[in-house]
């Protein structure tokens, strides 16, 4: 993809802009165990990485016969937001990578809008990325293409001129289904296992990279 036909870069948020996945999965596992669902963190990564909260709740109900009600959601939200404010860090070099890109950028994440905004605010990225799109805005979350297509439409760019930066299998599948090129970022704290890298490779993204400093070169 050359600068001539690249007109929009769409970033996932968790694990791409902010190093949030270890915190998020730890909070989710703790909350699920509080409802009697004994799930290990590696299994939670495999099942839920890059997917929406609605998907998590659906799996809990369909596979474990447990309904995640308002108390569950509020407990998880309070714990997660507290830890984000105390611990969350941006992915190394991502601010500089965004500044170096020659085209507009936006965010399209499976997370709820409030959580995305908090993540970008506490890590100092919100001013660079004012255009934010959440899975709550579309009918079907990743791996369906709905969110990426919606983001492109709102930004006024055709899918073939978009580049998606993702870290999750669900996100890579969604970008491909949307007819967009996709770069898989494997530099987050959660992306160190050989199993993760193997799964990403099997999905054949256009590029796999682990250093945000390389993004401008790769996208040009």
Give your account of this protein's structure.
By secondary structure, the chain is α/β, with parallel strands linked by helices. The protein is built from 10 helices and 6 strands; from the N terminus they run E-H-H-H-H-H-E-H-E-H-E-H-E-H-E-H. It folds into 2 domains: 143 residues, Rossmann fold, CATH 3.40.50; 67 residues, DNA polymerase, domain 1 (Orthogonal Bundle). The mean pLDDT is 92. It has a 6-stranded parallel beta sheet, sandwiched between helices. Helix 1 runs antiparallel to helix 4. The protein starts with 7 loop residues before the first strand and ends with a helix.
Task: Give me some keywords for this one.
single chain; 220 residues; alpha/beta; Rossmann fold; DNA polymerase, domain 1; 10 helices; 6 strands
Point out poorly predicted stretches. Answer: none
Mean pLDDT: 92
Spell out the helices and strands N to C: EHHHHHEHEHEHEHEH
Count of helical regions: 10
Q: Give the DSSP E fraction (strand runs of 2 or more residues).
A: 5-15%
Give the spatial strand order of the biggest sheet: 3-2-1-4-5-6
N-end to C-end Cα span: 6 Å
CATH architecture of the largest domain: 3-Layer(aba) Sandwich
Please tell me what the overall shape is: globular
CATH superfamily of the largest domain, by name, is: HAD superfamily/HAD-like
Counting helices, strands and paired strands, the structural category is alpha/beta
Mind describing the biggest β-sheet? 6 strands, parallel
User: Over the alpha carbons, how many angstroms does the gyration radius reach?
Assistant: 17 Å
Total number of β-strand segments?
6
Assign a percent range to the helix content. Answer: 40-55%
């Amino acid at each position: 993809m050359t600068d001539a036909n690249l007109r929009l870069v769409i970033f996932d948020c968790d694990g791409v802009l902010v190093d949030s996945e270890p915190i998020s999965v730890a909070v989710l596992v703790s909350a699920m165990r509080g409802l009697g669902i004994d799930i290990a963190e590696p299994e939670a990564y495999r099942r839920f990485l890059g997917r929406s909260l609605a998907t998590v709740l659906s799996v809990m109900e369909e596979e474990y016969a447990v309904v995640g009600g308002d108390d569950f959601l509020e407990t998880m939200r309070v714990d997660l937001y507290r830890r984000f404010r105390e611990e969350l860090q941006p992915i190394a070099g991502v601010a500089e990578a965004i500044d170096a890109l020659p085209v507009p950028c936006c965010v399209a994440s499976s997370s709820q809008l409030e959580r995305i905004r908090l993540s970008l605010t506490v890590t100092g990225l919100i001013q660079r990325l004012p255009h934010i799109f959440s899975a709550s805005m579309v009918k079907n979350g990743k791996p369906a293409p709905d969110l990426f297509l919606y983001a492109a439409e709102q930004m006024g760019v055709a899918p073939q001129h978009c580049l998606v930066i993702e870290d999750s299998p669900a996100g890579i599948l969604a970008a491909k289904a949307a007819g967009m090129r996709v770069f898989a970022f494997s530099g987050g704290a959660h992306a160190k296992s050989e199993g993760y890298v193997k799964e990403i490779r099997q999905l054949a993204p256009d590029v796999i990279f682990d250093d945000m400093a390389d993004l401008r070169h790769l996208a040009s």
